[in-house]
Amino acid sequence: MTNFPDLASLRLLLLIDEYGSLGMAARELAISQPAASARLRSLESRYGLSLVTRSTRGSYLTEDGKAVSAWARNVMNELNRLQVGIGALSEQRRGDLKIAASLTIAEFFLPRWLADLHRSQPGIHIGMVVVNSAEVVTMVREGQVKLGFIESAVKVPDLASCQVGSDRLVVVVAPDHPWAKAVVPIDRDELVATPLVVRETGSGTRETFEQALGAKTNVVLEAGSTNVIIASALNGVGPAVVSEVAVRSTLETGALINVPVTLDLRRSLRAIWRRKDPLRPPIDGLVAFALKNRASDDTQPVRTRNPDGA
Q1: Cis omega before residue 282 (within 30°)?
Q2: Is residue 308 included in any domain, yes or no?
């Protein structure tokens, strides 16, 4: 079959799966909802499949839709790797900095480090791929990028690494959730028994939480987007596990409550590279700036709610 599905339609399907809403998927793609509906109908008609079920509560993938979505996600990941690989071979980019970073580091830590690097080397070109920690490790191992940044509770034994910062996870709930008024920290058994909103398998957040929990997470919703996880907690889908730095402003407004738990949810932020590839300019410069900012990047704990609700 040569009539391959177009990438825009596959991207739409993945976003519907992520958001549970055709309208939100359309907004993410910067197209109208009617245009998104037409694109979806065209994809379904081309292959004679029903991929999405719509209701007043949202849009959900059918069993066929879930299968196509899983394949589409693999395609998108491979295309991402292809793009990085081709860029690495490009003569005009030779000597420039190509990195991969996990979501939290890319959003909340790397901008400062990269700004310092740009000030010291104004002409440098930086190419960054944002994927989860497991994919960052794979890209570094395969030589697709020279440097990666991951959020992990443990070191990766076959790669060289150094700690460039620290982070902590928090469990957050909407103010009307029973845990919002918890006097005693929520223990492991209750966390194991409660359906939670979490990041996808392979993310540093999920790895850190499950290592601390000592068990697989009881999942009510998993997503590759921190914003989706926060929005789900705000709307009462369930308690959410998220990086404290990502949710700090929402906690400060009181829109979400940081629930005290008995688990140690601290984790390291690490730079990783292949042992046979020693750090050279400009890669060593970026790591140096990350280490320089390490003390100020270490997050401070946010107060959990005390017994009188303050």
Answers
A1: yes
A2: no
